[in-house]
DNA sequence: AATCCCACCAACCGCCCATCG
DNA sequence: ACGATGGGCGGTTGGTGGGAT
């Protein structure tokens, strides 16, 4: 049985908004606010519209300081860079572009920017390649034997990838649901990486531990529960579980990070903490926005499109971190 | 002038998650 | 603890207008 509809579908108007409806909605919200209840709002405002429709109309069109019209080159670059690193998280990308809405950016990407980057080649050819990014960054700072590292999950071929400086070997000692083969060193745009091939043909639940050794000989374990998007990191007596309970928390974390990426959170040396910690991904001298258009194209073509995410343990909820 | 095709974008849909009772 | 509800999100659809044939 499906869930109950949010409104009486038979009695709500659909389709384009009239100027009168816009005026009613705008006047009501400016005078009374949304009241935190979009479902009840249309009735109070005298509109025969679904609450969700009102919300969308307000957020995408009526609210103050909405910017319409051409995107600047800077905006293009920000969109491309963020798309390459986090995928189609339009709301997060929109958060970095004041006045732009996620819908705007999504439409702009789908209709113009994609073509600008790739010409008219069908994106569907690239859709098979969907990569999950998992950034194990600040987790591995300071006392950790590991340098900052990045793990990429590519769901098109069930592989995890990480910069070669992070792990020298990977011993699948305790895996239950999935196993990991010996790493295969590879070159990539992100620098040298090692690739961990899963044997389970797509099941990404790790029931046990995946042990690995760093180049200095120390040992660590990483446990990944793909279904619940939870990661656990253990290094001797140092043990962290990285919880990802809910996309909303996750989104805000990523938004924080992408804010730093774009706006900068720079220390005395001119590097943001995030840039430093992401050096395993971005390289020694590059900032994310230093990507040229060809590199962005390459990144997008190999990391598109819909299921990218970044894990940043430093932002993990207190309750999810223990030793 | 009529038709077709395509680009654009506003709006809708369905899903997931958080919150609340 | 659990189900109902609402908010928010990404993907998709459909209407419209302009250019090509």
UniProtKB/TrEMBL annotation:
Keyword entries, A-Z: DNA-binding, Nucleus, Repeat, Transcription, Transcription regulation
InterPro entries in the record: Homeodomain-like_sf (IPR009057), Myb_dom (IPR017930), SANT/Myb (IPR001005)
Organism: Hibiscus sabdariffa
Residue span, Myb-like domain: 9-62, 63-113
Protein known as: Uncharacterized protein
Claim: Cell inner membrane is one of the keywords in the record: no
Coiled-coil stretches noted in the UniProt entry, renumbered to this chain: none
Span of domain HTH myb-type: 9-62, 63-117
Location(s), subcellular: Nucleus
Cross-referenced SUPFAM superfamilies: Homeodomain-like
Superkingdom of source: Eukaryota
Cross-referenced PANTHER family: MYB-LIKE DNA-BINDING DOMAIN CONTAINING PROTEIN, EXPRESSED, OS09G0431300 PROTEIN
Statement: the UniProt record of this protein carries the keyword Transcription regulation: yes
């Amino acid at each position: 049985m499906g869930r109950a509809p949010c409104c009486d579908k038979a009695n709500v108007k659909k389709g384009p908004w009239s100027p009168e409806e816009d005026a009613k909605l705008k006047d009501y919200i400016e005078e009374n606010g949304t009241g935190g209840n979009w479902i009840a709002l249309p009735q109070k405002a005298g509109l025969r519209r679904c609450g969700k429709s009102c919300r969308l109309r307000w957020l995408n069109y009526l609210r103050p300081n909405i910017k319409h019209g051409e995107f600047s080159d800077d905006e293009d670059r920000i969109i491309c860079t963020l798309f390459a690193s986090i995928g189609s998280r339009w709301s997060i990308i929109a958060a970095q572009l004041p006045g732009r809405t996620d819908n705007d950016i999504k439409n702009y990407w789908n209709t113009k920017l994609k073509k600008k980057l790739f010409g008219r080649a069908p994106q569907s050819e690239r859709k098979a390649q969907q990569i999950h990014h998992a950034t194990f960054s600040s987790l591995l700072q300071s006392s950790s034997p590991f340098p900052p590292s990045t793990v990429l999950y590519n769901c098109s071929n069930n592989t995890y990838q990480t910069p070669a400086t992070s792990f020298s070997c990977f011993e699948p000692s305790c895996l239950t649901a999935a196993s990991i083969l010996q790493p295969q060193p590879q070159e990539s745009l992100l620098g040298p990486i090692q690739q961990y091939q899963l044997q389970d043909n797509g099941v990404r639940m790790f029931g046990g531990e995946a042990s690995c050794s760093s180049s200095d000989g120390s040992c660590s374990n990483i446990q990944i529960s793909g279904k619940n998007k939870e990661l656990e990191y253990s290094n001797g007596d140092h043990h962290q579980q990285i919880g990802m309970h809910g996309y909303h928390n996750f989104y805000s974390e990523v938004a924080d990070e992408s804010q730093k990426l774009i706006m900068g959170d720079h220390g005395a040396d001119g590097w943001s903490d995030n840039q430093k910690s992401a050096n395993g991904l971005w390289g020694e001298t590059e900032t994310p926005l230093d990507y040229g258009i060809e590199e962005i194209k390459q990144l997008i073509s190999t990391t598109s499109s819909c299921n990218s995410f970044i894990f940043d343990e430093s932002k993990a909820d207190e309750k999810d971190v223990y030793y």
